[in-house]
Structure formats: structure tokens, C-alpha cells
Amino acid sequence: MGKTLFDKIWDSHIVMSKPEHPDAVYINTHFIHEVTSPQAFDGLRKRGIPVFRPQKTRATADHNVPTLDQHLPIKEALSRHQVEMLTKNTAEFGVELYGLGHPYQGIVHVIGPELGITLPGMTIVCGDSHTSTHGAFGAVAFGIGTSEVEQVLATQCILQYKPKRMKIEVNGSLKKGVLSKDIILYIISKISASGATGYFVEYAGDAIRNLSMEARMTICNMSIEMGARGGLIAPDDITFDYIKGRQFAPQGADWDKALAYWKTLYSDNDAQFDKVLTFDAADIEPQITYGTNPGMGMGVTQHIPALDQVEEKERPSFKKSLEYMDLEPGSALLGKKIDYVFIGSCTNSRIEDLRLVADYVKGKRKADDVVVWIVPGSKQVEAQAKEEGIDKVFAAAGFQLREPGCSACLAMNEDKVPAGMYCISTSNRNFEGRQGPNARTFLASPLTAAAAALTGRVTDVRDNF
Ligand SMILES: CC(C)[C@H](C(=O)O)[C@@H](O)C(=O)O
Ligand code: SF4
């Protein structure tokens, strides 16, 4: 019987396997950041263990960094401490750090791919749930906890039970104004924030195949928001073209050898999945969330479910969620006034996202009472945006182009949405307090966010093309 892509990669990385026990899986690349690594390094220090393969570990500072004046000392004491610990630990243990001021610094899930560190066929982990992003390259990439970070630092392996396999096919063509962010928000709204729990998802179908690497990363990034362990997409020419020539990508004879292997990375025709779901791209309209988990989403022209449309057992949490959002069951979101627009995060802060937004807003101006933050995913994205004159388009539109970091994706740094305010955000989580205490988040695509920035309201981007 044929194998799924996931099985091909997983099986070829098993160091030890015993019935009724987790597999010991070799890890090709371990990314670390300032939030989930300090205790892991402390653990090593206490036991007197070195990092087993420091060259296979890459560090960046992203969650706690400010996105203005990065050349100055970090103002918040806790954030400053976290970033200083990362600098100290990586120096002591011989791990390469792309810290503040480094030309490669940025959000961990943005820099890995753009530097050519993330490659097809790899196993990749990071103490961060959105490690699933790297699966867009046909890698088995997943988030791990702090104690597992220590395990991987010490052994370059991880003990893991093999997840079940799910295939999600999206067929047909996307309508105008619909982006990959809308695909994934749509899928999550259909299967719920726990609909893929216990599975590793492979995305397939021509609507996925036709996406750029950036767009594929957006989809894999949010796999975790439906409970999946990770998501991946078989690599193809779009993948290989993206990787070729990047800083750490294989070159010359190494490239040829790698490419020959990468071309074997697909699910065989007769491979068995534990579950298969199929969607039609033509059914997807620009999406927006109305609640406090990413599964509470809908098409931008639709109405929030009325109470009697919600299953009885889910009504209490549904009500609580809408109270937090100060929204009425059964109401529409179109035309709703918003206060902030955040275009950034590891979901949508790559150069393609910024280009799309710049094309859309060129020559236009934001609504007066809206604050618009554009936060590039990395120093390289920031530099590229400046090279292309995108910074000028944003400045003319009244959008603030800031410096790279996780920023308002989560309230762990200076960038917070004030209490009670509504923010249209291109990030991946709309949990209570996620963007700041009592801040209210609508998740959407970069185009839907840009459209709202211009009107100051929830807007159907298709009306203004
Ligand atoms: C801080 C980190 C551990 C966390 C994660 O695991 O995803 C963060 O990146 C997030 O997006 O919530
Ligand atoms: S941008 Fe947001 S989702 Fe991504 S790693 Fe940072 S905090 Fe997590």
C-alpha cells in the first residue's frame, strides 16, 4: 500500500520505535525564540548538558520586541529580560541568534522559509504552536512545549506519538478578492476550532496547488487553529522556485541531490488517510470572525448566527463570546465601525501580503479615526518593502509601517489594542485579551483588513476593486 507524504517523512526520521510507546523522531531543524527557551536552557545548565547539534538550532527574537525604535533598549522590563536571556543563552550554548538589529531578525515562522532554512522533507520543531507554517514546504513541522524544547536541544530528537492523517482538498478556482486566508478561515468555520484535533493535515486540490508559497504558508499556519498537530502541502515547482538561491538553501550538486529527493515527496495515489474532507473554492467569500475563537467565522456579508441556530450545549459559550465582543446574535458585521487595523503576524506579514495591500490602497487614504499598523514579518521583508517603494504608499495612505516582530498579534510587547476597541487583524487568534486586555478582534485577510482601513468599517473588499 502507498504512503502519505506525512508517513514518508515521519518514517524516514524514526530513530527508535516500540509498540505502545512514542516514536523517537530525529529533528532536522529546531527554531527557538525568547518565550519558550529560557527554562529549557536552564534545564541543560542544571544537568551540565551541551546543545547536541547547535548548528541545527536557530534563534530569533520576535514575541517581546518593540516594533518602534528597535535600536533603543526595550522599555518593558519583562520583555527586555526575555530578549537578554535569549542573547545570553545562545551565546553560552553556541546557537546562532538573529537578534534585534540583525538583518535576518523577524518572526520565527517568517524567517525560516525566507532564509532557505525550511526545506521539503525536513522535520522541524519550535516551542511555538504556529510551527505548522513550515509545513507549506512539505515538511513535518509542529509546535512543542518548553520541556520538549529541552529534550530537542539535548538530543536533537523528540518523543512523539504518531498523529492520524487527514486530507483536506480544496478544488476549483477562488473568486476575486478571496485569498488563502479566506480559505483557511472558511475551513475552520466549517469544521470548528477543534475539528482536526489529533490529526496531521495534508492540504491538496487545485485551489491549493495554484497558491504561491506565501499563500500556502498562511494556510498551514492556521492548521493549529482547528486543533491539528500540523499541516503540510506536497512540494512542487512553486516550492522549488521559491527556495532556489535563498541564503541557506542547498547549492550546486547539493541542490540537484536535494531536488531529486524532494520530487519523491507526495502522497501515493493509493495512500490511505484516516479522514478526507473536500471543499469547493467557488463557495468561499471573504471571511471575517465575529467571536473569540477562530472557528467563529463567516462570509463578510453573512449574519452572526441567531441563538436558535446554535446548538443548545454551545449556547453559553456562544453568548459569553458575543458579550465580550459586544455584538448581537443574528446581526450583520458589514458596516460595523472599527478602530484599529493590524496587518502582520506569522500568518500574513510576508512581502506578498504587503504588496497586495499596497496595490489595493495606492493613492487612497485611511479613514480618519482608524489606527493602521503594518508590521513586516522580518527585517528582510521590511527592507524589500522599502526597496519597492511600498513604504511610501503606506505613508501616503496614513498607514504606519513599523519594525518586525509579533507585535499586536499577542499582547506580549508594547503593541496593544486598547480595551473595548475593535481591531481587524490579519493574525490567527481572536481569543479574549489576545491583542490587549478587553481588546476585540475580527480576523480577516490582508485585503479585507485594508478595505476596512480605508472605510473605517467592516467592508466587503469586492465592492471596491
Ligand atoms: C508564545 C508562544 C508560545 C505562542 C504559541 O505557542 O503559539 C505564541 O506564539 C502564540 O501565537 O500564541
Ligand atoms: S506572530 Fe503571533 S502567532 Fe505568530 S508566533 Fe508571533 S505571537 Fe505566535
UniProtKB/TrEMBL annotation:
Binding site for [4Fe-4S] cluster: C346, C406, C409
Domain Aconitase/3-isopropylmalate dehydratase large subunit alpha/beta/alpha: 7-456
E.C. designation(s): 4.2.1.33
Domain of life: Bacteria
Cofactor: [4Fe-4S] cluster
The family this protein is said to belong to: Belongs to the aconitase/IPM isomerase family. LeuC type 1 subfamily.
Function noted in UniProt: Catalyzes the isomerization between 2-isopropylmalate and 3-isopropylmalate, via the formation of 2-isopropylmaleate.
Entries under NCBIfam families matching the protein: leuC, PRK05478.1, PRK12466.1
Protein name per the record: 3-isopropylmalate dehydratase large subunit
Gene name as annotated: leuC
